[in-house]
Amino acid sequence: MPRPQSPLSESLPPLIFGTATFNYQYNLDPYALGPTPLVQKALALGVRAFDTSPYYGPAEEILGAALDTDLVRKYYPRESFFILTKVGRVASDAFDYSPEWVRKSVQRSCMRLKTSYLDVVYCHDCEFVSPREVLGAVRELRRIRDEEGTLKYVGISGYPVHVLCELAEMILRETGEPLDIVQSYANFTLQNTRLLTEGLQRLVNAGVDIVPNASPLGMGLLRRNGTPLGAMGNWHPAPDGLRQACIDAAKWADSQGEKLEVVAVRFALENWLREGAKVGALGDPLGGNEATYGHVLSLPNEKLGVSVMGVSKIEELDETMRIWRSVLDGLADDLDAEPGTITPSDAVTDHEWSLWRRQNIRVLAKGIRTVISQPWVDYTWPSPDPGFVNRLSTTITHVPQSPKLPVASPEGAMPTPPSEAADDGHGSDVPGLSCEE
Fold this sequence. Notes:
- The chain has helices spanning 35-44, 59-67, 70-75, 99-113, 131-148, 161-175, 194-205, 240-255, 260-275, 314-331, 350-372, 418-421; strands at 15-18, 49-51, 82-87, 89-91, 94-95, 118-123, 151-158, 181-185, 213-214, 307-310, 342-343, 348-349.
- By secondary structure, it is an alpha/beta fold.
- The strands form three sheets. The chain has an eight-stranded parallel β-barrel with strand order 1-2-3-6-7-8-9-10, surrounded by four helices. A two-stranded antiparallel sheet has the order 4-5.
- Residues 335-347 and 394-437 have low confidence and may be disordered.
- Keywords: Oxidoreductase.
């Protein structure tokens, strides 16, 4: 496969299905979620991009099996959707960014995902290793792109916004080629908007094409029922004070007749569509599936900010897509477009309701951030934790009170996902993989 001639932003859709939920951190048994009908329903509703990682336990295998069905092959050929995955993170305290491991990881991901190529490969949680290691991994991924053709676009992902910016700037400076994509998570939410206030312009200046906003619920922090408890227990890195502030915010939302998670999802999706447009994408936001929603949207031929949404159940998918459809309908206001269909129950158009809901969410968001209050508004947890040592390296990647090192991330507190624990050896060749592994 030749190197892509066009930037990723010309084709990537602005909504990506995240599969971190296909993991023991979020669910007691990811295989019991019914992932195949979930993925197929997502495709039917217009989703055309899936984000995953070998670090997400069995997520790659689950997604690969769901996409490797007669139905998907018949109606959704491989070139009609995007697969985004990652390399480098082996376990909670183990990272391998070496060229050898990068090559093996790419090969293994293709096998697990049952595909001959990957659309995007990120260096996963890049704040946990040295800039030199990140640069080496990016160079190897680009070599694979150019010489082997098993991947198309290269990026980095992580939590601390300033580290992502520093690395993007360094890679442009050292290689003369900007990153295609930089994914941040939990940094444009009701609780924390640092991706916008501290990161956006720096990433634009570094030539980054796309910046997806992942985890609009802060990895489950912004939920009425609190942070998720999966088979790995209470893994979320948020301190008790922040957790309590979010519980208080959920109670306030309840008093307004709202669910915190509904407000949080709509706030992030709607606002990042606009605020993230500078680093957004032109792909079809409904996957050519307008007929499913009753009427055709009149949307601008302009970039829209890209979001990654993780769901575990079909009910969650349906709710997410309902919100997404309404958010898109509200965009017509920016174009003075024709209103949508009439809602028979109250003679209010979809477009008019969407505009009202946008204003309503702004008021609710302001109230929720007031309840969360300082010091928890825009608070970020350490990533990695002070004194973290990568057990596959002798390098200490985070020293307390160093001004140029991370101020945030969650996964340092996460236990090792079972399917990655067996990869610690690094001595053997990449094994053949199956869903039974």
